[in-house]
Amino acid sequence: MADKRLTTTAGAPIADNQNSQTAGPRGPILMQDYQLLEKLAHQNRERIPERVVHAKGWGAFGTLKITEDISQYTKASALQKGVTTPMLARFSTVAGEAGAADNERDVRGFSLKFYTDEGNWDLVGNNTPVFFIRDPYKFPDFIHTQKRHPKTNLRNAEAMWDYWSLSPEALHQVTILMSDRGCPTTPMQMNGYGSHTFSLINDAGVRTWVKFHFKTQQGHAHLTNQQSAEKIGQTREGYQEALYGTIDSGDFPKWTMQIQVMTEEQAQQAPFSPFDLTKVWPHADYPCITIGEFELNRNPENYFAEIEQAAFSPSNVVPGIGFSPDRVLQARIFSYADAHRYRLGTHYEALPVNAPKCPVHHYHKDGQMNFMGQQSGNVDAYYEPNSVEGAPREDKIAAEPPLPLSGDADRYNHREGNDDYTQARALHDLMDDGQRSRLYSNTAEAMQGAKDTTIERVLGHYDKISQAYGDGIRAARAALNG
Ligand code: NDP
């Protein structure tokens, strides 16, 4: 095949791509050397703002296949038995910057975009079923404790533990973070959870609350803190190497998709709030129902275009799937799409990796980088309602039953009357001796650098989870400090 002709971005041929245009062999560069100016200007603009959280990520494309009939719960076309849907997955660490080492102990993001025939459905979850906060008002504060101190520009154990000692709702998630599962060996060897409660809506308009789970078929594998330090000493890109390499070799990783369901009546009677992101739904009461699996089988052609610019948002639901009163979900519906408008621009959903694979018709107009023209599909239909023939119209298929909400508006204390200890205790108690001992020593190591008064305050909460838990951390701290 003949080589292609090198051109400027305006399409004109380039005669020399090696030498600047100068006044004589020793002279200065001419202002008219637009090729040089353009090259340098493009380089200055190669980076876009990194994500404030989940900056370091790894992703691949694949396919979701539904194998069971759950039409009694949902009319979502992508969740009908036998349907396959193309998808994108992006895994990430939460706290580290875009250049952070992959194998650090951290929660992992587990974001999925399903390109369904009724629009994109995004599940923007983690490798944990719960999170550190139950009220999104605390999210910026919490994240500040995970990032760098404004003066030292270093991560700060005192900030983390001070915040957690005053936010006992976080300790369930902290327990998972400090357990074996807090340091998965590769992205393939961990589960994913939708974490929030969502709605499934069936043909008859009946709503069922749902949680989504994705169980690794590769088996769980984790690194200890020491193994993780050794791994990072060898490579900072352990996850990228593992995910890219595995898929490149044709060994496609898979996850089993499961749901837990709860009727509206069950939700009213549940002893805990089913919409509290710091709580799981116990398996014994709400069993996991297997509904299908997904496989990752294609690496991106261009990391920046397809992974760095991938924009996942919990606001992306499709007919048959809806939101819930989970207040962290409600805030993320706004904040994720808002982050994408800031990072990628107004029309981020028109970028190829984010664009739905079904027809898109809307009445938004203009804006930076609008290369699509009028997306109503008709130049006369640029307002609505209109009487223009063939213009986009509403479709009641997307109508949802009313959300059952009630109550007086106030700033209720979310820390009052909430049991922050029972589920963390259940997790602690199901671990074997080896897992518990690593939980204690990982926690003690993470506490290094925090003030003793802060540690004492947080240990008071650990004692309430389980005296054995608090004492285990104390013993591990004593061993660490000689
Ligand atoms: P179960 O005994 O039925 O479930 C325990 C679950 O804990 C397992 O199925 C497994 O989840 C998960 N698990 C095991 N080891 C770890 C670990 N080191 N870190 C994190 N998760 C682990 O009891 P319950 O459903 O009553 O849950 C008990 C506790 O287990 C909960 O309080 C919660 O902390 C934790 N858990 C519960 C989940 C749920 O959805 N009910 C999900 C994950 C954790 P999996 O099957 O997802 O691999």
Alpha plus pi helix count: 13
Which range best describes the helical content: under 10%, 10-25%, 25-40%, 40-55%, 55-70% or over 70%?
25-40%
Strand content: 15-25%
State the separation between the terminal residues, measured CA to CA: 69 Å
Secondary-structure element sequence?
A: HEEEEHHHEEEHHEHEHEHHHHH
The CATH architecture of the domain at 57-132 and 167-346 would be: Beta Barrel
Global mean pLDDT? 97
CATH class category of the domain at 57-132 and 167-346:
Mainly Beta
List each distinct ligand once: NADPH dihydro-nicotinamide-adenine-dinucleotide phosphate
> What shape does the CA trace take?
globular
Main sheet specs: 10 strands, antiparallel
Structure description:
By secondary structure, the protein is an alpha+beta fold. Among the domains are: 256 residues, Catalase HpII,  Chain A, domain 1, CATH 2.40.180; 59 residues, no CATH class. The protein is 29% helix and 15% strand. The chain contains 13 helices and ten strands. Strands 1, 2, 3, 4, 5, 6, 7, 8, 9 and 10 form a ten-stranded antiparallel β-sheet that branches. A hairpin with a 2-residue loop joins β3 and β4. α3 packs across α12. It starts with 33 loop residues before the first helix and ends with a helix. The model has no long low-confidence stretch (mean pLDDT 97).
